[in-house]
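Write out this protein's structure.
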Amino acid sequence: MSGRNFGDEGLFFLAESLAYNQTAEEVSFAANGITADGIKAFDGVLQSNIALRSLNLSGNSIGDEGVKCLCDILVNNSGITKLQLSSSSFGDEGAKAIAEMLKKNSTLRIIELNNNLIDYSGFSGLAGAILENKTILSIHLNGNYGGPLGAAALGKGLEGNKSLRELYLQGNSIGDEGVRALMAGLATHKGKLTALDLANNSISAKGAFHVAEYVKKSKSLLWISLYMNDIGDEGAERMADALKQNRSVTNVDLGGNDIHAKGITEIAQVLKDNSIITALEIGYNPIGPDGAKALAEVLKFHGSVKDLMLGWCQIGPSGAEYIADMLKYNSTISSLDLRANGLRDEGAICLARSLKVVNEALTSLNLGFNEIRDEGAFSIAQALKANEDVRLSSLNLMNNFLTKLGQSAITDASDHVYEMNEKELNVVF
C-alpha cells in the first residue's frame, strides 16, 4: 500500500481493518501523505493487534508529534518487531520519544530512522535507551546529524548493551573524534556486533586507526563499511593490518577513500592468507594499472573473494589485461564490476580472451561506462560463442559506444549460449 497518497483519511479507514485482521504480518503505508493527525488512527488498533510483525511508515511527514503519538501506542504492542520511520521529518523530540518507548518495549528488534533530523540530543536519548533495552538487534540512523558528540553518546550506550547486532551510521559527520569515542564504546560492548556502517563520515587515516584497532579484536563482525571517507593509503594500510588478524569479517567496503596502488597492494596481501573475505568493494579509488596488477597477482591463486567491485578505479586497458589474466586461473570470483575504467576496445579484447577459457565461477560481469566500441563487442561475442561451457548469466555493457552492429553481435552470442546449454545470458546495453 505504499505510494498511494491516500493521506490521513485513507489511513483511518485502513487502520480500522487492521483491528479485525489477525493474519497480516507485514504492512507498508510508506509515502502516503500521512501526517501526525493520521497516526491517531492506530490508537486502539496496534495495542490489540498481535499478528502484525512489520510496520513501514517511512516517507510520511509525521514529524515529532506523529512519532510521539505512535510511541505512546507502541509501548504496549507485543507483536511488531520491525518499525520503519525513515524520511519522516522528525528530530530530537521524536527520537527521545522513541528512546522512551524502547526502554519499555521488549518486542522491537529492528528500527529504521534514516534520513531524519536527529541531532546530538536525539542520539543521546537513543543511547540511554540502548543501555536499558535488552532486545533491540538493529538500529539504522543513516543520514542524520549525530556528529562527533552523537557518536560518543552512542559509544557510551553501547558499553552496557548486549543485544545490538547491527549499527548503521552512514552520513552523520561523526569524524575522527566521533569514531574514536564510538570504537571505545564498541571495544567494551558485551554483545556480538555483526554489521557496522560508517560510510560518508569524514573519517581520515587517523579515524581509520581506531576502526582498525576494533576490527583486530572483534570476533563477531561480518560486514564493515568505510565507503566514501578519506582514509587514503595510510588508512588502507591500517585496515589491512587489522584484517590480517581478524577471522570473522566477510564483507569489506573501502570504496571512495582516495586509496592508490600503494594502499591497495597492502589490502591485496591480506587476501593471500585470508579465506574469510568473500566481498570486496574498492571502487572509486584511483588504484590505476599498478593497483590492478597487485590485486590480480594475489587473486590469481589466493583468497575466497566472490564479489569484487572495481568500478571507477582508473585501471585502463593495461589494468584490464592484469585482471583478464587473473580470471584465467581464479576459481572463486562470481561477480566482477569494472565500470568506468576507460577500458576501451583494448581492455575489452583482453577480457574476451579470458572469457574463451572455461571459468566455472564468473556469472556476472559489469563493463558499463568503458568507451567500448564495436570492435570490443565483436571480441566479446566471439569469446562467448567459442566457450561452450560459459557460466556467465549477466553482462552489462550500458553506456558504451556500441552501434547496432555491436549490439547485434552480442545478442546473437547470447542466443548462441542459450542454444548450446539452455542458459539465459541477460545482456544490458
